[in-house]
Design goal:
Shape: globular
CATH architecture of the largest domain: Orthogonal Bundle
Low-confidence stretches: none
Distance between the termini: 82 Å
Number of strands: 14
Helix content: 25-40%
Strand content: 5-15%
CATH superfamily of the largest domain: serine acetyltransferase, domain 1
Structural class: alpha/beta
CATH class of the largest domain: Mainly Alpha
Oligomer: single chain
Largest sheet: 5 strands, parallel
Strand order of the largest sheet: 1-4-7-10-13
Number of domains: 2
Mean pLDDT: 91
């Protein structure tokens, strides 16, 4: 039996009617959006730019490293600038006509210039993160190992780029980047989170750091830790109030062990240790040790166990 082609045109009118072209609620507008696959490629180039040789490509030496960096930097600038433009163009906060692109193009260019100027200091902070991972983990054999393999270093490196773009109010791109790294590492850091120097995220799986979290210098965080919001404030109409401080502030030299949950706009004082599985929603003074009551192990004899016979 010969199949005839389905007449698709009959479905088009109802489908188009499902779009709210003048609101923000439609799944996608008719303007092009930033591309996730392209951003993944940019992330790979950023890693190689920050830590030349990380990708395992050609051998680098004093002669070849400068051309290598120059090529990478140009590619990152060109590709990321275009994605930043698409973020502004798609979000269109200034309600510009679709043919009026000059303002968004100019913003994207200025953002890339500022990022390249900030890159040396960002790279120093990323190296400090890698050193903190080595200093804090006896299983690490050298700093290079933490750079090449540790998910915490991967997540922090790109977070520092995403946070820079977030502070520049770039639409969409910072959150898209953070979600790409969340998918790759299991570490969920909102691009708005403010993170100090030499943070060590050990293991990392299940770590959640909320948008308004502030983390000081030389902090250690283990797997499963949540820095979250205790509640979501609403206005008189029941609408969420956005932009308020609702996540914890972690002072310098704090250690937070596995599966601890710290909620709300509270402060954990410096040099404090938060034990595993602690649940905290109030301020903790400096130089404290917080832990739950130790759980009691219950040991029972298993059914069907054979009695030991005397000789």
């Amino acid at each position: 039996m010969k199949k005839t082609s389905l007449d698709i045109s009959q479905f088009i009118p109802d489908y188009l009617n499902s779009f709210d072209r003048f609101g923000k609620s439609c799944f996608i507008t008719f303007r092009p959006a930033p591309n996730r696959v392209t951003l993944q490629s940019i992330i790979s180039d950023v890693f190689e730019l920050l830590f030349p040789g990380r990708s395992g490509g050609s051998v680098l030496n004093k002669t070849t490293v400068v051309p290598h960096i120059e090529t990478l930097m140009k590619r990152v600038c060109d590709n990321l600038e275009h994605q930043i433009f698409l973020g502004w163009f798609h979000d269109n906060p200034y309600q510009l006509d679709e043919n009026d692109t000059q303002q968004y193009e100019q913003i994207a260019r200025e953002t890339i210039i500022d990022l390249m100027k900030a890159l040396p200091e960002l790279r120093v902070m990323m190296k400090e993160d890698a050193q903190a991972a080595y200093d804090g983990d006896p299983a690490a054999t050298n700093v290079q190992e933490t750079i090449l393999t540790y998910p915490g270093i991967c997540a922090l490196t790109i977070h520092r780029i995403a946070h820079f773009l977030y502070k520049k109010k770039v639409p969409l791109i910072p959150r898209m980047i953070s979600e790409i790294l969340h998918n790759q590492t299991g570490i969920d850091i909102h691009p708005g989170a403010t993170i100090g120097r030499a943070l060590f995220i050990d293991h990392g799986t299940g770590v959640v750091i909320g948008e308004t979290s502030i983390i000081g210098n030389n902090v250690k965080i283990y797997q499963g830790v949540t820095l979250g919001s205790l509640s979501f404030p609403k206005d008189a109409c029941g609408t969420l109030i956005r932009g308020t401080k609702r996540h914890p502030t972690i002072a310098d030299y704090v250690t937070i062990y596995a599966n601890a949950t710290i909620l709300g706009d509270i402060k954990i004082g410096e040099h404090t240790i938060i034990g595993s599985s602690a649940w905290i929603h109030h301020d903790i003074p400096s130089h404290s040790f917080v832990q739950n009551e130790p759980p009691q192990a219950i040991i029972r004899e298993r059914y069907g166990r054979k009695e030991k016979k005397d000789d």
